[in-house]
Design brief:
Blueprint: E1 3-6, E2 9-12, H1 13-27, H2 31-39, H3 43-54, E3 61-65, H4 71-80, E4 85-90, H5 93-105, E5 112-114, E6 127-133, H6 142-152, E7 153-164, H7 172-191, H8 194-206, H9 210-219, E8 223-230, E9 235-241
Parallel strand pairs: 3-4, 3-6, 4-5, 6-7
Antiparallel strand pairs: 1-2, 7-9, 8-9
C-alpha cells in the first residue's frame, strides 16, 4: 500500500483523489473568493504573466489542465483567436461546470472534458501548449501528470506550470501567519469551510520547491526548463519545451 500527502496528513494514494475531490466540490461555488483570499487578488496578475510566457499564437492548440474557473482558458483564447483551440479540463465535475458556465455566460464556447491529469485522453504530439495553473500540487502522481503533458505536446511546444512555491526566507513568518491563521478563519467566515482552506494552505507547503519541480519536469522529458518567481517566490511559473 503506497502512501502520499493530503496536506500535512499521510493518506493512502487511493484516498487522496477522493479527498481532493471533496475539497474542490465544497469550494467550487466560492472558487473566485478562494483565489482572491489565497493570493490577495494577485492571481489576476500572475495568470496573465504565465500566459504571456507561453507565447502562443493565432491558430494554435492549448490544453488547460485542471482549468477550474476557466480563467486561463479565457486568457489563452484571446491569444489563439477563432482559428485556434483551447480545451478546458478538470478532474472535478463541479469545478469544470463552474468554468464552463462562466465562459458560456460571456458567450465563449470552447471544448471541455472531465479527465485526470495523470491520464489525458488526447493523442500524442497534439497541443502547442499545455498549461496547469494551481492544480499540480493536488495531483497524486505529479511525475505521471508531467509525463502525460509531455506526451500530448507537439515537438517545439511548451508546458507552463503556474503554482504556489517556496517563499523567500524573509517572508516565511508573515506568510505562515497568513496561511495557517488568517486563511482558514476567512474560509470559515466567507465560505463556511475552514478545513478545505486549511488543506489548501498545507498543500502549498508540501508541493515541491522551485528547483525540485524544475528537475521533475526535466525527468519527464522536458528541456530548457526554467522558472520565474513572482511575489517573493509565493508563486513561480515553470516553463519547459518538448524539443
Amino acid at each position: 500500500m503506497a502512501n502520499t500527502h493530503f496536506g500535512f496528513q499521510t493518506v493512502d494514494e487511493k484516498e487522496k483523489a477522493k479527498k481532493v475531490a471533496g475539497v474542490f466540490t465544497s469550494v467550487a461555488s466560492k472558487y473566485d473568493i478562494m483565489n482572491d483570499l489565497m493570493s490577495v487578488g494577485l492571481h489576476r496578475i500572475w495568470k496573465p504573466f504565465a500566459v504571456g510566457l507561453a507565447n502562443v499564437h493565432k491558430g494554435q492548440r492549448v490544453l488547460d489542465v485542471a482549468g477550474g474557473s476557466g480563467d486561463m482558458s479565457k486568457l489563452f483564447l484571446k491569444k489563439v483567436g477563432s482559428r485556434g483551440q483551447v480545451v478546458l479540463t478538470d478532474i472535478n465535475n463541479a469545478m469544470l461546470r463552474v468554468g464552463r458556465d462562466r465562459l458560456l455566460d460571456e458567450a465563449i464556447a470552447t471544448p471541455t472534458a472531465q479527465c485526470d491529469a495523470e491520464h489525458l485522453p488526447f493523442p500524442d504530439n497534439y497541443f502547442d501548449c499545455v498549461s496547469i495553473a494551481f492544480g499540480l500540487r493536488n495531483v497524486t502522481h505529479k511525475d505521471a501528470a508531467l509525463r502525460e503533458m509531455h506526451r500530448v505536446l507537439k515537438p517545439g511546444g511548451r508546458v507552463i506550470v503556474l503554482e504556489f512555491s517556496k517563499v523567500a526566507k524573509p517572508l516565511e513568518k508573515v506568510y505562515d501567519l497568513y496561511s495557517f491563521k488568517l486563511l482558514p478563519k476567512m474560509g470559515e467566515l466567507i465560505a463556511n469551510d475552514a478545513d478545505s482552506y486549511r488543506y489548501l494552505a498545507e498543500s502549498i507547503r508540501m508541493h515541491p520547491g522551485q528547483e525540485e519541480l524544475k528537475q521533475m519536469m526535466v525527468d519527464a522529458g522536458l528541456e530548457r526548463v526554467e522558472y520565474f518567481n513572482m511575489t517573493g517566490g509565493v508563486v513561480a511559473v515553470h516553463r519547459g519545451y518538448k524539443l
